[in-house]
Sequence to fold (385 residues):
Amino acid sequence: MSAVPIITGPPALRVGIVGYGLMGKAHSYGYRVAPLLRRLPVTPVVTVMSGRDAAAVAAAAVAYGVPATVTDWRELISRDDVDVVDICTPPGTHAQIAVEAAAASKAVLCEKPLALTYREAAAALAAVTRAGVHNAVGFNYRRLPAIALMRRMIAEGAVGEIRLWRATWLSDEFADPATGWDWRFDRAMGGTTIADLGSHLIDMALCMAGPMDSVCAQAATFIGERRFEGGFAPVTVDDAASALLRFESGARGTMEVARAAVRRPCDFTVEVNGSRGTLLFSYARLNELWYGGADDDIGLYGMRRIRAEHPSHPYAAQWWPIGQGVGYGSSFANQAADLLSGWPEEPWTPGFAEGAAVQAVCDAMETSAESGRWVSIGEVIASGL
Ligand SMILES: NC(=O)c1ccc[n+]([C@@H]2O[C@H](COP(=O)([O-])OP(=O)(O)OC[C@H]3O[C@@H](n4cnc5c(N)ncnc54)[C@H](O)[C@@H]3O)[C@@H](O)[C@H]2O)c1
Fold:
């Protein structure tokens, strides 16, 4: 009988995930799939997961293939078998967990938004900078092939100088009045719809069109209380918001986010109009990008559909043969592969500095919606420190 050869891969990079809900599952999936996509210097292994409910976190750990659980995230941070603390809990917990993970010299990946306020985000940034640890914010949508291609085409000049940037994010998460109260309706834990959905769009705006100068926003809450524990609890977040944007470059923009849009599940669009062309992405067709350029043959006037899955496109060669497409989960596998492919030399991106820059724009929109005036990003940064 011949011996079965033992194959050893790269050394383990041990991850502790705080939270076992939707993002705990998505991040676990990402670490599993990343080594299938790219040859990495380390193999990500989720060693432990934390959750306040012992039975629930244990059940999740079995499903996600995680060998250990704890009920206190501080215990997770202090474990010797954790190199990376991956924060997948509600926004109101992010900054504190990130600060304590950095103090324990652990690398930190934090789900978006980085914090509830710019002040908290700046404190988290200061903590990881002081500790000199790797840090990243989970802006996973920028790692979809079509969004990455959109950024690349903008950088290569396909649209010329950006003049207009426009985005909408429509969801029906809060549309049904019968949906009960949970942390997402509590501003002190879930943050606003501006920060929840808007943080992804603002991240894309900043990395496509550059820094923002100022914003003017409005926000509304249509259902003021929700059923909770036999009674009702007040809703302290907006159901929807919209904003006018001014970029430092002089470009103008608009952004609308809503969790009150009936029969719209997670429909987001991003469009850029430049001096020489237009690019349009719609998440409902996430493997496609629409492009029209001023130099195109006039007989073909209009926008053409690019299949953002050609091997020459970002991420595409690592996935399936052209025509098969990728999905939401792929963005988390791309995220894990991107972060770990340069370990430990390469810093992570987008880091807490980008997360704090996004937070400054969120704060400016929230302040504008409350005060009814234009608010500059500089004003938020000056008052937050
Ligand atoms: N990148 C994305 O596509 C995406 C999608 C959804 C959510 N998110 C973000 O991920 C984070 C988690 O969202 P989710 O949808 O996974 O939520 P979820 O409700 O599915 O899971 C939240 C987890 O945090 C735990 N938790 C709740 N309150 C806590 C507290 N006070 N202290 C410690 N743990 C607590 C819960 O037990 C659960 O394990 C949020 O910041 C959210 O904005 C990102």
